[in-house]
Amino acid sequence: MPDLSIDVVAKAAGVHRSTVSRAFSRPEAVKSETREHILRVAEGLGYTMSPLAQALRRKTSTIVPLIVPDITNPFFAELAKTMTQAADERGYQLMLCVTNGDPAKSDGYFTAMQAMYAPFGIVAPSTKVDTEALKRFAFGHKVVVIDRVEGDDSVPTVTVDSRKGIMLALDHLHGLGHTSIGYVSGIAGTHTAQDRMDAYLELTAQSGSTPVVLDSGSDLDAGTRGAEHFLAMDNPPTAIIAANDMVAFAVISALGRSGLRVPEDVSVIGFDGLALGARFNPPLTTVRQPIADMGHIAIELAEKQNVDGSVDHIVLEPELLVRGSTSELRK
Amino acid sequence: MPDLSIDVVAKAAGVHRSTVSRAFSRPEAVKSETREHILRVAEGLGYTMSPLAQALRRKTSTIVPLIVPDITNPFFAELAKTMTQAADERGYQLMLCVTNGDPAKSDGYFTAMQAMYAPFGIVAPSTKVDTEALKRFAFGHKVVVIDRVEGDDSVPTVTVDSRKGIMLALDHLHGLGHTSIGYVSGIAGTHTAQDRMDAYLELTAQSGSTPVVLDSGSDLDAGTRGAEHFLAMDNPPTAIIAANDMVAFAVISALGRSGLRVPEDVSVIGFDGLALGARFNPPLTTVRQPIADMGHIAIELAEKQNVDGSVDHIVLEPELLVRGSTSELRK
DNA sequence: TCGGTTGCTGAGATCGGTTGCAATAACACT
DNA sequence: AGTGTTATTGCAACCGATCTCAGCAACCGA
Question: With a 7 Å cutoff on the CB, does A138 touch strand C?
């Protein structure tokens, strides 16, 4: 394969390199006959432009990093899936970066991406993001965060309304006759996680019941510990809200190992709306986040910021997804 | 941030650009004092080399595509996780490419990666890979496949011993007293999927029982259909082998919805060893694939092929992981 | 017919490195 | 001292595009 560069196409088409360049990158600047001729020749040669060379010269590439703590967590996997697609549709290539919760890695990715002239990046954090730290990196000025951030409006964000989501869960459970409802926090140490918990605390108090936080940890074992706590109680709640689906899975699994059945003995509701939940045993009732929308919106916000400089904060609406892990209270 | 190029470092260090280049890329070619001086100056300026410019000139980059059909499938997610790490350790950056099972997309990724001068790529296919098609792309000569390939030894592969895995599952179930054991195929249309099924058929016949294939589909609903088939049988098997963990989840979920309990009423064993399985209800007994090893080995094979031209076919050993979804047969 | 646009295309510098080759210095040996 | 290495470093072309500037032709109105 004789290396195909812009010059060989130019020669083959009998024009100058710069004309070929324009034919591809700025079509309106070339007489249409010329352009079509060039494109035809290029096509015939099987030529495509080198994204590397373009990026080097233009100082901006089409590769967009998505930084997630753990791709093994289905929430991030679903996010990654929709984002690859959203990116693709707009001509970007998504580069998946997995930090395993290590902020140092995340910094490393930032500088690497900056060196690659990434036009912007998306971060799905596992901790409350420090916008100051973010902005110490030049690249930090061009990221959108999939979480709420505190005190600083200069970073675009996408989130779903945590309070609304918890309210949905609570209302659903109340409707089924449950009045004593426990809560298990979980996994991420994000603002979103905090918000969900706060909403639970506040809304429960408002309805006159006393909140029962079964576990407030933020690691993978929160579900298991929450279940243990539940089992050790004299007067346990009749329903449990899990901060996210993964935790709900763990709770149900741990409960099951101790002989308790869901939803017969306890109702459990999750938060996320993972596709996986539909194949759980029992299928998980949950509050759905519009993950696909989040992905698309994240990219839009990033692009918008890049052109306008505008910084938006989008809050999406969650939605109740009733499946099989909750049922009417029975005495 | 005044653009940091090799020239500003050179000026600051009082040497020529090429010396700076060597100090970084070919340390032994520079007097050690000079090198240390340059490195110190660079460090002080916060300079790092542009991977883009390097790739352009060297005609080889450090970005490695991992092509998977669906990142939402935890098997591929775990693979992606270990591979990002394995890649990282060797100085590559993994670029995740999701095809959604569309071979055309996969072709597109190939040419894109070739344009990016990727040194090689890893493919985890969702269908039997056609090595001929693979090699129509120049890039096809530099890919390692995470599946068996047929009739063509020119492509490095990593797989686990399917027959051994099925044997492990069968032996485990036999040991628990089960003699009538069904099988649900699932999801991927790969050689591996085929091999597992063939092994089941063959080994079952060998042990004198008659195979019961509950579903042989290769889509996400195989588990559900398999369970339906099971429920409709007059004399259903007492245990089920699922071709992979995701299918096992679906089977158990569907069985559960019909009031059947696992493992009390039916034993179910999966194949994959996903971390998720430990948090299923019940925790899933399964045949573990050494996914982490697969990731590392895939990268090693690719590198090896790149230098030697050598093509290896590595077959890894599976391992039985007994958790809670199988139990002694009771009448 | 002539100056002024306007539309296209070519020249050539540039992006940030790499690398073969030449030049110089330093050292060894006869 | 003369000559043949060998170790370092500088020079300049090159990778594959982009983009500013300039040149040229066609077209416009007076």
Answer: no
Which class for A13: exposed (0-12), middle (13-18), buried (19 or more C-beta within 10 A)?
buried
The DSSP bridge partners found for residue B213 are B183
Q: Which two tokens stand for residue A47?
A: 């030529």
Q: Which of the nucleotides lies closest to B32 (Cα–C1')?
A: D8
Q: How far apart are CA B244 and CA B224, in angstroms?
A: 13
Look at the alpha carbons of B3, B5, B9, B14 in this order and tell me if their dihedral is positive or negative: negative
**The one-letter amino acid at A71:** I
Fold assignment, A58-159+291-316? Rossmann fold (3.40.50)
Question: Matching CATH topology for B6-49 and B59-160+291-317?
Answer: no
Q: How far is the CA of A37 from the C1' of D24 (A)?
A: 22
Sign of the dihedral through C-alpha A175, A179, A180, A181? positive
CB contacts < 8 A, A to B, total: 134
Edge to edge, the sheet with strand A313-316 lists: A93-98, A63-68, A121-123, A143-145, A157-160, A313-316
Q: Which residues of B282-315 are buried (b: 16+ CB within 10 A; e: fewer)?
A: bbbbbbbbbbebbbbbbbbbbbbbeeeeeeeebe
Question: So where are chain B's domains?
Answer: 6-49, 59-160+291-317, 162-289
Residues 6+ apart with CB under 8 A from A175: none
In total, chain A counts a number of residues equal to 331
Question: Which of chain D's bases lie under 7 Å from a protein CB?
Answer: 7-12, 14-20
Within 8 A of B71 by CB-CB distance, chain A residues are: 71, 77, 80-81, 84
Q: How many CB atoms lie within 10 A of CB A190?
A: 23
Mean pLDDT lowest among A150-159, A242-251, B22-31:
A150-159
**pTM metric for this prediction:** 0.92
Arch. (CATH architecture) of B162-289: 3-Layer(aba) Sandwich (3.40)
Residue A314 to residue A324: CA distance in whole angstroms:
31
Considering the segment(s) B6-49 as one domain, its CATH architecture is Orthogonal Bundle (1.10)
pLDDT tens-digit readout, B143-192: 999 998 887 788 999 999 999 999 999 999 999 999 999 999 976 788 99
**Residues of chain A with C-beta less than 8 angstroms from the C-beta of B110:** none
Q: How far apart are CA B98 and CA B100, in angstroms?
A: 6
Q: Is the CB of B233 under 7 A from strand C?
A: no
CA of A25: nearest nucleotide by C1' is: D18
**Rounded CA gap, A292 and A276, in Å?**
15
Domain B59-160+291-317 bears CATH identifier 3.30.1490.120: no
